[in-house]
Amino acid sequence: MLNPVVAIDGPAASGKSTVARKLAALLNFTYVDTGAMYRAFAWLALEQNLDPADRVSVSGLVERAKFDLTVSGGAVRMALDGTDPAPFIRSERINAAVSKIAAIPELRERLVIEQRKLRNLAPLVMEGRDIGTVVFTDTVFKFFLDADPAVRASRRRQQGQTDAVAARDQADAARAAAPLTMAADAIPVDATYDDADQIAAKILQICRDRGLSAAKVEAL
Q1: Which domains are assigned to the chain?
Q2: pLDDT at 106 > cutoff 70
C-alpha cells in the first residue's frame, strides 16, 4: 500500500512551509520542502557561474550533478555533489534565482522523479508549487495556501529577506513547465489572517474528514 501524502501548494511566503511543518509534526509524517530542492540547484548553478535561466547550462548541470535524498527523523536530508546545501539556499540571491531555474523542464523532471521516490520511504506532508498538479495528482489530500501579497511581502521582510513576491508569482504562474496553479480538486486555504497552528489544525480536520482516520493519526 502506498504511503499517504498531504500536498500543500501555494505561492512564495504564503505560510505553506510553516503550516506543512506543523501538520507533519501533528501526523508524525515526514515533512518535505520541494522548494529547497530547486533552491539547492540554484545555489549550485550560481556557485559554478552558470545562468540559472539558461536551459542548456542548467540541463548539463542536472545531468552531471549527484543529488541524494534521505529520510531521517521526520525530515528529508539533501546532498548535492556531496555537500549539504541547506545553509546556503535562503539568501536574497537565491530568492532572485530560484524561479528562473525552476522553469527549466529538465530540472523539474529530475526532481519530480526524486520526490515521488520519497513516498516509498514514509508518509509525507509535501509542500511546493506543483505537488497536487504534477507530483502526486492521485492524493485526495490537496490544499492550496494563499495570502494577500502585501502580507506575504511583509513576512519576507520580517524574516530579514528581500523577495519580490509579486514578480515571483508572475514568473511561476507563466512558466511552461508545471506552472503554479491550484489543482481542480484542491481545497483553497486563506492564510492571510489565521496563524499557522490554526491553519494546520483546520487542514488536519479536513484530512480526517477525507479518510485519514483519527485512529491512524492518533496512533502515529
Answers
A1: 5-219 (3.40.50.300)
A2: yes
Inter-axis angle of helices 55-64 and 34-47, to 10 degrees? Answer: 100
CA distance 15 to 38: 18
pLDDT in tens, 144-175: 999 888 888 777 777 766 666 667 777 777 78
> What span, in angstroms and rounded, lies between the C-alpha atoms of 11 and 76?
21
Q: Residue 216: its pLDDT value, please?
A: 45
- DSSP state letter for 88: G
Name the β-bridge partners of 188: 144
Burial bucket for residue 83 (CB in 10 Å: 0-12, 13-18, 19+): middle
Pairing of strands 141-146, 124-128: unpaired
Compute the distance between CA of residue 72 and CA of residue 129 in angstroms, rounded to an integer. 24
| Cα angle for residues 38, 137, 84 (degrees, 5° grid) | 25
33-71 pLDDT, tens digit each? 999 999 999 999 999 999 999 999 999 999 999 999 999
Give the whole-angstrom CA distance, residue 99 versus residue 199.
26
Instruction: Look up residue 160 and give its DSSP letter.
Output: T
pLDDT of residue 114: 97
